[in-house]
Design brief:
It is a single chain. By secondary structure, the protein is an alpha+beta fold. It has one domain. Helices cover about 20% and strands about 55% of the residues. It is globular.
């Protein structure tokens, strides 16, 4: 049986940088889990220069990154983490970082549960 609490949001802005942290506590099979969605972006005149959108889950008392979208290494991509530490990198083909950031945020908000289940089974990717 699963139980979901309302997300708690923190928004931090300033100097062209904004960060949003959303935390949700869930109960799965009588075990409480906490997940966090972190959005970070550096903007200049409305254009995103770099970003990170990461979904993390509190698993066995430790925060585990599950899926991360970012612009590290000079290009937008999605990193899918596996429990054994392997990271699967998938490039994103968007016209701008703004579009990639929007897609990443929507994807993680819509699909975090599937990503968490896949991570638990070890079959992401």
């Amino acid at each position: 049986m699963e139980n979901y609490d309302s997300p708690k949001r923190i928004l931090v802005t300033g100097g062209g940088v904004f960060s949003v942290h959303t935390s949700v506590k869930i109960t799965v099979n009588n075990k409480e889990l906490t997940l966090t969605l972190i959005n970070y972006a550096q903007k200049d005149k409305g254009a995103i220069l770099e970003f990170v959108v990461q979904y993390e889950a509190l698993i066995s008392g430790e925060w585990q990154p599950i899926v991360r979208y970012d612009t590290a290494h000079g290009f937008a991509h999605k990193d899918i983490m596996k429990p054994d530490g392997e990271v699967i990198k998938q490039p994103l083909y968007f016209e701008s970082y703004n579009l990639a950031f929007t897609y990443a945020t929507i994807d993680l908000k819509a699909n975090w549960k599937k990503y968490r289940e896949d991570f638990g089974r070890g079959d992401q990717g």
